[in-house]
Design goal:
iron, Alpha-Beta Plaits, FdxA, about 110 residues, about 20% helix, globular, alpha+beta, 3Fe-4S, 4 strands, metal-binding, binds iron/sulfur cluster
Length: about 110
């Protein structure tokens, strides 16, 4: 089991999660973060920290797609361990449906 970041993170990117992860397994894309499923130790501390409720256990039904996305992009994007400023318009995208289709970007973020 691992935890995964879902599309609820897209364009919100609050980054409260990276501060609490004991094994620094978050990776930064242009407009969302992902978790490396091979590094995550399933401690669960990041899940309640996310204001967008974007972090879920991969055992919840329907999360296979997000597990695959987290596995793929955590090997391509840079590691991030410190909270930065979230996008100025982050709150406008919180809780919006269909963000993956509309806004997902495979481009990397800047990392630490
Ligand atoms: S706290 Fe939630 S919304 Fe913010 S970067 Fe982490 S997963 Fe994304
Ligand atoms: S569950 Fe724990 S180890 Fe996994 S990403 Fe969250 S804080 Fe990091």
């Amino acid at each position: 089991m691992t935890y995964v970041v879902t599309d609820a993170c897209i364009r919100c990117k609050y980054m409260d999660c990276v501060e609490v992860c004991p094994v620094d397994c978050f990776y930064e894309g242009e407009n969302m973060l992902v978790i490396n499923p091979n590094e995550c130790i399933d401690c669960g501390v990041c899940e309640p920290e996310c204001p967008a409720e974007a972090i879920l256990p991969d055992t919840e039904g329907g999360n296979e797609k997000w597990l695959e996305l987290n596995a793929t992009f955590s090997s391509q994007w840079p590691n991030i361990t410190r909270k930065k400023d979230s996008p100025a318009d982050a709150d406008e995208f919180k809780g919006k449906d269909g963000k993956y289709d509309e806004y997902f970007s495979p481009e990397p973020g800047e990392g630490d």
